[in-house]
Amino acid sequence: MRLSVIGCGYLGAVHAASMAKLGHDVVGIDVDQAKVNELAAGRAPFFEPGLPELLAESQATGRLKFSTDLADAAGADVHFVCVGTPQRKGEYAADLRFVDAAVAGLAPYLKPGNIVVGKSTVPVGTAARLADQLAEDAPGAVLAWNPEFLREGHAVQDTLSPDRFVYGVPDGAAGTAAVAALDEVYAAPLSTGTPRLTVDYATAELVKTAANSFLATKISFINAMAEVCEASGADVSALADAIGMDDRIGRKFLNAGVGFGGGCLPKDIRAFMARAGELGADQALTFLREVDAINMRRRSKVVEMTREICGGSLMGKRVTILGAAFKPESDDVRDSPALSAAAQMQLQGATVTVTDPEALQNAKGRFPELTYEPVTENALLNAHAVVLLTEWKEYRNLDPAATAALVTDTNIIDGRNVLDPAAWRTAGWTYRSMGRP
Ligand SMILES: NC(=O)c1ccc[n+]([C@@H]2O[C@H](COP(=O)([O-])OP(=O)(O)OC[C@H]3O[C@@H](n4cnc5c(N)ncnc54)[C@H](O)[C@@H]3O)[C@@H](O)[C@H]2O)c1
Ligand SMILES: O=c1ccn([C@@H]2O[C@H](COP(=O)(O)OP(=O)(O)O[C@H]3O[C@H](CO)[C@@H](O)[C@H](O)[C@H]3O)[C@@H](O)[C@H]2O)c(=O)[nH]1
């Protein structure tokens, strides 16, 4: 099939390359010329394991092209909308300008029977509004909403072998046509038995925001337990292991620490609260306000712990932060707990050096006031405190004795509960973690 993918960021670039891998002819469109140049040259404009190989492979077949000109999307049968829906400045609500612009820009190039497929995460009600707009601007084109559940760091695998497909489609013949088109696009993964659910627009939109809200709630639940563990001397990791053995609960997403960040969970729970308010259902989601508050408290908590381990003040202290990305295997620093805590420490008078294997360039753009050092050993030199905030493998595998030889004071805070407390203490470190004694 001929496909277009509008918006080639973390979602769209992986989607475009993966669809070409499935055998489709794909054109990826983005307004960012630098990003398109990189992609067109076969290079990934961000770090995502497996994406460079996929880009090279798909481009060698001639089935994957990139452009900044929406006119190049003309001729495609199915158009995927993958543009950003960030949090609006100073508000909780999602900024839908990019989605609106993408759909409006696409309309003149659509032919009757073309399918426009929204993949961006949007507030419930957006698809119905866009379908009305398309009915006027591009009669005969059909809108579907097909939310995406990929995780950064696993994006290629999640796209090619998802847990499920969710199709939000209109009633009647238009819906049948949209389902048939999406089934053809995803024929290969569907043939392996991947479940596929066909629902209305509102349900499809809500499946996505509900899933992210559930994941955020699970993380904040365990972080709330970590607060109680900190007050009582219990061990949150042992607690998570024990409750996670109950199949009804499950161990995944019960890792306590500095909390969740990224371009999805924080903004999605906020946009969901804002939308529920507009719908008069805000009471239903007041718990998400608490989920957000618990999460933000963890960032302040790690700053407080660093202050304590440094003797009560950060003034004049050298602090090394291990990790800048919001999670390992990603260079994404959007709403990164690590950088947020680092900036708070710097404001309290510390000289903060941040290291990360992939995210330093992005981090510099967001927090130019911090010091960045790509080589872990150099970043550790003469530190008064080391704070692990993104659990990259190389930080999990640090040798406590060798690390002790680099620093001024052997103080470490494990903000992701991934180090072995006994090994670090034996090597002479004052070791503290979040929710573990
Ligand atoms: N990142 C993820 O892991 C992930 C997973 C599932 C869903 N989502 C959702 O997918 C959407 C995109 O997220 P992302 O992380 O890829 O964002 P991103 O910021 O990395 O990418 C968005 C891209 O859209 C481009 N763009 C903006 N307006 C455009 C227009 N009018 N025409 C063409 N391109 C345009 C931008 O230049 C940018 O490259 C969001 O709604 C997000 O919530 C993201
Ligand atoms: O037990 C855990 C698990 C995760 N995290 C943190 O939670 C954040 C989000 O992690 P993850 O969900 O793995 O990353 P994303 O790539 O943001 O993926 C989420 O957001 C995407 C965009 O909507 C969805 O598609 C995915 O399904 C959803 O998992 C990160 O900061 C993690 O460090 C924890 O603190 N504890």
UniProtKB/TrEMBL annotation:
Substrate binds at residues 149-152, 208, 253-257, 261, 327. It is an enzyme of class 1 (oxidoreductase). NAD(+) binds at residues 30, 35, 85, 121, 152, 267, 334. This is UDP-glucose 6-dehydrogenase. It catalyses: UDP-alpha-D-glucose + 2 NAD(+) + H2O = UDP-alpha-D-glucuronate + 2 NADH + 3 H(+). Residues 320-421 form the UDP-glucose/GDP-mannose dehydrogenase C-terminal domain. InterPro entries: 6-PGluconate_DH-like_C_sf, NAD(P)-bd_dom_sf, UDP-Glc/GDP-Man, UDP-Glc/GDP-Man_DH_C, UDP-Glc/GDP-Man_DH_C_sf, UDP-Glc/GDP-Man_DH_dimer, UDP-Glc/GDP-Man_DH_N, UDPglc_DH_bac. GO terms for biological process: polysaccharide biosynthetic process; UDP-glucuronate biosynthetic process. Keywords: NAD, Oxidoreductase. Belongs to the UDP-glucose/GDP-mannose dehydrogenase family. It comes from Arthrobacter yangruifuii. Pathway: Nucleotide-sugar biosynthesis; UDP-alpha-D-glucuronate biosynthesis; UDP-alpha-D-glucuronate from UDP-alpha-D-glucose: step 1/1. Gene3D superfamilies: Cytochrome c1, transmembrane anchor, C-terminal (1.20.5.100), NAD(P)-binding Rossmann-like Domain (3.40.50.720).
